[in-house]
Design brief:
CATH superfamily of the largest domain: HUPs
CATH topology of the largest domain: Rossmann fold
Strand content: 15-25%
Order of helices and strands: EHEHEHHEHHHEHEHHEEE
Number of domains: 2
Number of helices: 10
Structural class: alpha/beta
Number of strands: 9
Largest sheet: 6 strands, parallel
Distance between the termini: 61 Å
Bound molecules: adenosine monophosphate
Length: about 280
């Protein structure tokens, strides 16, 4: 496995792979790697790509400096996991390499209107501008590629897809299923920050989604049901919503069909998200 740290070497590596006739599979991460990240490496490998993974904790997508400071780092695990799952090139750029002017903001920001402004975007102002800006830069350096993202961050994929479409970027975005722990908890680097009690409470997110995924109800009945499950477990609910999976417009009670349920909450000081498919029934009364 190659390890690179500069934009120049990384751009050159990706170009050489394409020149040799290979397709490049980009897997952007923030490190503290787990089986969810590994599933993206595996998918890229399965499609025959040369796998280029990046590890960069992007400060511009953290509104809260304490959240950024607390973000877990597990460099030895990261290296081993990347090697074991066939990553060909691991890119770990320094902050000065990615954002030389940080903490001053860059003059250019990529901002995706609409989708970025609801749910995660409403609760974390500027978050998706930080995500879109860094992902645009990762795409610009890597060049034509397939890029793998997890459904765990469902709204993030929608933002990235919109950006790719609007700017005609030479990138095929591939969404991959959520990897869960044995008990249903969606794997997340932030799970490392949970106490045993908090981890138990955190299970209410996947439980709430599972419950509404199994039933047919109108949208606001689903919202209420999910909120109740999470609140009963002691979670401070940020949102529990049912939306159109492409536009992220909230689902009205007179609508029926396939939608996405998304939840977010704070558990023991840690903010967690999860989501899953639902089928809503139109309200009849
Ligand atoms: P992160 O390091 O948290 O920025 O995540 C990097 C990529 O891994 C993103 O595309 C995430 O959606 C994806 N990812 C994180 N957790 C999971 C999971 N449990 N299952 C599938 N993909 C995940």
């Amino acid at each position: 496995m190659q390890r690179l740290h500069t934009i120049a070497a990384w751009r050159d590596y990706a170009q050489r792979q394409r020149d040799a006739g290979h397709s490049v599979g980009l897997v952007p991460t923030m490190g503290a790697l787990h089986a969810g990240h590994a599933s993206l490496f595996d998918e890229a490998k399965a499609r025959g790509d040369v796998v280029l993974a990046t590890i960069f904790v992007n400060p511009r997508q953290f509104g809260d400096i304490a959240d950024l400071r607390a973000y877990p780092h597990t460099p030895e695990v990261d290296l081993r996991l990347a090697q074991e799952h066939g990553v060909d090139c691991l890119v770990e750029p320094a902050l000065e390499e990615m954002w030389p002017e940080y903490p001053r903001p860059t003059a250019t920001t990529v901002s995706v209107r609409g989708i970025s402004e609801v749910l995660e975007g409403a609760g974390r102002p500027g978050h998706f501008d930080g995500v879109a800006s860094v992902v645009a830069k990762l795409f610009a350096v890597t060049g034509p590629c397939r890029a793998y993202f997890g459904d765990k961050d469902f709204q993030q994929i929608a933002v990235v897809r919109q950006m790719v479409a609007d700017l005609a970027l030479p990138v095929e975005v591939v969404g991959c299923p959520i990897v869960r722990d044995y008990d249903g908890l969606a794997l997340s680097s932030r799970n490392l920050l949970l106490t045993e009690t908090a981890r138990h409470q955190a299970l209410s997110l996947s439980r709430a989604l599972h419950q509404v995924g199994e039933t047919r109800r109108y949208a606001s009945a689903m919202r209420r049901a999910m909120r109740a499950v999470m609140e009963d477990a002691g979670v401070r609910v940020a949102y529990a919503d049912v939306v159109d999976p492409v536009t992220f417009m909230p689902t009205r009670d007179d609508e029926g069909g396939a939608r996405r349920a998304l939840v977010a909450g704070v558990v023991g000081g840690v903010r967690l998200i999860d989501n899953g498919p639902v089928v809503v029934e139109p309200r009849r009364d």
